Inverse folding.
């Protein structure tokens, strides 16, 4: 009678052949089976994930979350997945921005960190100290907006953070927050949307009240330089969403915008939906997404895997 083999003793080459046939979600689960399966995945280059996931954060005081949050994966239809335990304080922090697998999180003391909820990796950002933003302006942090970029392999990152009147930034290697050259923008309303183009190393920012767009270049090691400013049509507001490429990908709707409900309606499921640009129809999410926990926020993001 032959010797019995454990599933953990499967040949790495055989495992990689299996990995090639798995969906992104199944591949993540397979890597978590045991250390040998995880080790075999390091020599496997997965296809780039093109399916957005929705992450739902528990509300403060939600006792059924146990420091976890939920994932909804459109390609898996009526299924939701629970993250690992991310700490007892997780329900009291807020997501400001996403990039790839990473989330930019802010706690009640206005400390920021960059978190990967799939792996538990965390990068603590520098504390916000004087004189970058004077103490009297700290209450503005409650309505803050941020922009995140991070390199998955090197962990180089750039974070731009605005508190109504102030723009500050930090990146790997400087270990502090720095203000922009024209930091105080004045008025009662600041920036409502920011986008960073890493290839061009430029930040694009839009101010609602003033109806203008500004562009800063981050090409050097010093503070960013303003390279463009122009007035634009005064828009009524933005809702953070992810625009999906216009081609057929299993599990997502092409030519669509995935809205996260960011804003006053962040706890309302009706504000989290997929909008079809061609038909102008709204597709609501399955009820099973919202029933397991009382959530306080939700974000679409594009998780990825590294070797």
């Amino acid at each position: 009678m032959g010797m019995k083999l454990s599933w953990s003793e499967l040949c790495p080459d055989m495992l990689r052949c299996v990995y090639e046939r798995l969906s992104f979600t199944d591949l993540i689960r397979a890597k978590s089976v045991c250390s040998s399966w995880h080790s075999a995945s390091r020599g496997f280059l997965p296809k780039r994930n093109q399916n957005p996931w929705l992450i739902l954060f528990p509300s403060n005081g939600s006792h059924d979350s146990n420091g976890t949050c939920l994932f909804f994966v459109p390609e898996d239809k009526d299924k939701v997945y629970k993250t690992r335990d991310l700490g007892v304080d997780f329900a009291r922090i807020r997501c400001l921005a996403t990039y790839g697998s990473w989330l930019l999180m802010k706690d009640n003391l206005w400390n920021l960190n960059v978190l990967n909820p799939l792996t538990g990796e965390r990068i603590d950002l520098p504390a916000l100290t004087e004189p970058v933003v004077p103490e009297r302006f700290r209450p503005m942090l409650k309505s803050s907006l941020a922009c995140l970029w991070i390199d998955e392999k090197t962990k180089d990152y750039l974070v731009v953070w605005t508190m109504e009147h102030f723009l500050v930034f930090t990146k790997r290697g400087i270990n502090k927050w720095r203000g922009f050259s024209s930091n105080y923008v004045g008025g009662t309303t600041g920036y409502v949307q920011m986008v960073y183009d890493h290839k061009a190393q430029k930040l694009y920012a839009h101010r609602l009240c003033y109806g203008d767009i500004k562009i800063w270049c981050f090409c050097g090691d010093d503070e960013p330089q303003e390279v463009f400013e122009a007035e634009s049509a005064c828009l009524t507001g933005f809702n953070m969403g992810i625009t999906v490429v216009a081609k057929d990908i299993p599990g997502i709707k092409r030519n669509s915008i995935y809205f996260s409900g960011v804003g006053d309606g962040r706890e309302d499921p009706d504000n989290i939906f997929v909008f079809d640009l061609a038909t102008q129809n709204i597709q609501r999410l399955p009820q099973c997404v919202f029933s397991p926990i009382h959530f306080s926020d939700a974000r679409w993001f594009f998780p990825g895997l590294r070797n």
Summary: Residues 184-189 have pLDDT under 50 and may be disordered. The helical segments are 12-19, 24-31, 35-41. The CA atoms of residues 57 and 69 lie 5 Å apart. DSSP finds three helices and 20 strands in the chain.
